Amino acid sequence: MAIDGLRPSGACRWDLVALGEVMLRLDPGDGRVATARTFRAWEGGGEYNVARALRRTFGMQTSIVTAFADNPVGRLLEDLLYTGGVDQSHVRWAPYDGVGRSVRNGLNFTERGFGVRAGIGCPDRGQTAASQLKVGDVDWDAIFGSEGARCFHTGGIFAALSATTPAVAAEAIRSAKGHGTIVSYDLNYRPSLWRDAGGSERAREVNAELVRQADILLGNEEDYPAALGSTVTGLDADFSRLDPQAYAGMLESVLREYPNLQLAAVTLRRATTASRNDWTALCYAGGNCYAAPVRADLEIYDRVGGGDGFTSGLLYGLLTGRDPQAAVELGAAHGALAMTTPGDTSMATLADVERLVRGGTARIIR
Asked: Is CATH 3.40.1190.20 correct for 14-108+119-356?
């Protein structure tokens, strides 16, 4: 099954354009944020991670729509994005007031966790430049019309940033659809982002509106009931077990509720410890369910970005004409590999992903 309406490779400047915030991740390594004396800096953000992996791991042409405060931290993010290879021609720069009262760049302090100690994220992202994007700030018709994009990707993190960002996402999706661009949406439910913005009720309202305009929907097993509510009523919410078939009915019900969707996918994880997870994924399309192999007792170095790794691998499969079974296996393999290295972004190569899909082992490669 191919994705209906997907424009052929070479017909557009971009294989994928993403809309989202890019933060500076400050990582204390093996230690904890509260006792750290040094931090390693990375860039990261749910929507950006997908664009970066499609560029660096899979060799596709991608661009990011975001905004930075024009100060040294913003320029550090710019430099990190150069390394990632994602086009920055649609990055907006906001004048900095010298203090950060009116605009700033987002920070994310993240512990990897280990064993029985769970990973922890402590975002510091209020009043960021990306959260202040408004309708009319971006020339979407130039991006999707003059330049052209095969796929547009955004999600629930960007939509939760402020009172204005849901309308920006909706504006972008309408333009994308009007120019024949496939829309991918990741639910990416974060309770902390919605806490002071209407809570779960508002989250479900916003996500439902945006999902009704998408072609491809993604999320983990907790995102679907949290972000869509009554759509998945009746799902067994025992997330301690990893039974892909138990979630096929959930995805089927989502596609019935949102008939605009061509494909819905879910990542499944059982965290035995922060360092060992059972991991798999499945997708539902054309009346059929497709599941990746369960990787039991997968060793985790840094779990942040695993879901984005799945999304980029799945989209790579779909964008290159693979069937849903091959696409979900590429996504699950890339997500697993993304969690074997530090930072939000993937360090895997296409050869790594293809080798793992074929059943390659961890024996040294010489």
From this structure: yes
